[in-house]
UniProtKB/TrEMBL annotation:
GO terms for molecular function: ATP binding; ATP hydrolysis activity; ATP-dependent protein folding chaperone; unfolded protein binding. Belongs to the heat shock protein 90 family. Homodimer. InterPro entries: HATPase_C_sf, HATPase_dom, Heat_shock_protein_90_CS, HSP90_C, Hsp90_fam, Hsp90_N, Ribosomal_Su5_D2-typ_SF. Residues 559-633 are annotated as: C. The lineage of its organism: Bacteria, Pseudomonadati, Pseudomonadota, Gammaproteobacteria, Methylococcales. Keywords: ATP-binding, Chaperone, Cytoplasm, Nucleotide-binding, Stress response. This is Chaperone protein HtpG. The keyword Electron transport does not apply. Molecular chaperone. Has ATPase activity. GO terms for cellular component: cytoplasm. It comes from Candidatus Methylospira mobilis. Residues 1-341 are annotated as: A. SUPFAM superfamilies: ATPase domain of HSP90 chaperone/DNA topoisomerase II/histidine kinase (SSF55874), HSP90 C-terminal domain (SSF110942), Ribosomal protein S5 domain 2-like (SSF54211).
Amino acid sequence: MTIAEQKVTLGFEAEVKQLLQLMIHSLYSNKEIFLRELISNASDAADKLRFSALSHEALYEDDSELKIRIELDKDARTLTITDNGIGMSREEVQQNIGTIARSGTRQFFEALTGDEAKDSQLIGQFGVGFYSSFIVADRVVLETRRAGAAHSEGVRWESQGEGDYTLESIEKPQRGTRVILHLRDGEDDFLESWRLRTTVQKFSNHISLPIEMKKEHHGEDADAQPEEYETINSASALWTKSRDEITDEAYNEFYKHVSHDFQEPLARVHSRVEGTNEFTLLLYVPAHAPFDLWDRETKHGIKLYVRKVFIMDDTEKLMPRYLRFIRGVIDSDSLPLNVSREILQENKLLDKIRAGAVKKVLGLFEDLAKNDSEKYAALWKQFGQVIKEGPIEDFANKERIAKLMRFNSTHSASDVQDVSFDDYIGRMKEGQDKIWYVTAENLAAAKNSPHLEIFKKKGIEVILLHERVDEWLVSHLSEYDGKHLQSVARGELDLGDLETEEEKQEVENVAKDFEGLIEKIKKTLNDKAGDVKLSHRLTDSPACLVTEHYGMSRTMERIMKSAGQFAAGGKPILEINPKHPIVLKLRDESNDSRFDDLAHILFDQAVLSEGGQLDDPASFVHKLNGLLQNLAD
Ligand code: ADP
Ligand code: MG
């Protein structure tokens, strides 16, 4: 006997143990989901075999009728789920349901809140999969053999869902996988045939694979009857049916099957695209952002089929990254069946399918935005930050995506992002030709930015941008509907016709009085300020910082620096308010050291008021305290 054949006991990683414990406890009220997960795995295994057999017919081993069978044994108190799908090798068993936590496990634990109701939703998003068997079973045995492998290459995996599991080699003539659940005390419900049937039907009616259960015989000679099986699900791929044949419940169950989410989806689109490149799609918007929404490594949630044969799952080619939260199925009639995944990756048809699918998804969003504002608000709240990547990634649909975006603005007191560009344009002042925005690191800083003062005074609406992605967004979206998007904190402020000639003159009239002061501040702040100017954008604040017209914005610079990247945004321009008492005081200050302190404080408070960090906070505090001391004396 070689080592590989001996029975070995192996330990789960700490994280797997933790996951198991958590699942068993938090999911107890939802316990029948284990059936959905096991049937889902069996169905995936059949899909994989069907695909591999396209190029290796022999993998069918003369048994090409793929199916799932569910058996009960009341005496042994076991529930067994058998498939004749692709099966697993010993290495695969170890990799897939063995020692190591799957990618994402760590983030999952980080996302946990301790609130059981919330956490159980997270588990759903995480994909509970195979381990959910331990919710109802205190011992699980899995026997499997990879399609095409020798009968002697079967593997038995067994665990009680605690610290470890055993692996041993077995003889397994039938290809595929068998999962035997030894039910916990009190789970006898799952030994009732009717209970199982209704649960399986609820979860898996849409599965394209037949699910068989033993026919029940009643009466005296029940035991004498031969074993007969019947198919208990409808066994046709859901997306191939017409919309009016599918109930909401069936649609929602299918969503749970493809997404591993427990919750109902927010919205769906089921559509057939005709023409030279025909395909059917059934796509869903989840109600909640998955915990790994920001993980660059996550696989995309669209399954590609070709005439009902599953082709691939990691379909980055089928949805752009800004729609990475979409889940569902795309089934093409036009792609060739007998292709490898590698060739598919290069296939031009796939690009066309993707473009068509994106159109449908954007159409769904537009429909919600127009007809179901509550749902659209929920969608934007969950995925708005991701959709904002759209204009950068998907140039062709830039304008369409921009129309779907919602923002905070000075028009609305609410913290909900509910202002569209079209709303904004509808409220533009006579003579206003630009869409004004301010960027800041959070909503409060945006709302209170000194740059907004003149806009408030004139009643001009400003869009408040405060999410990280916004800086990238405005650097790629320079106009909407022919109107230029303009930062309130960049370059010379030009309000065009919105300022009267008199107002424009006002600052120039006093310019002479401040020439000396400006030169003096420039010298004093030589290291910090690129330039010093008189401002006409301030009414209440003494000073603010402005970026040069083509420079990197101050918010962008902060974001990059906080991400540890090198960012040289150049020195900002300090604008001072000629009407402010502090500025007037500074102009009349004759004591050099007090002037110096006051000028630095003026600059530093402008940094603070835009939510920035001081290079030398101690020196600021020291200077400020000096002033306060003067007051106290
Ligand atoms: P997921 O299905 O989301 O990948 P699971 O925990 O349900 O997660 O399953 C883990 C892996 O184990 C699967 O990806 C698959 O590779 C393998 N697996 C589970 N069940 C089966 C089965 N019945 N046949 C073949 N492989 C299986
Ligand atoms: Mg699974």
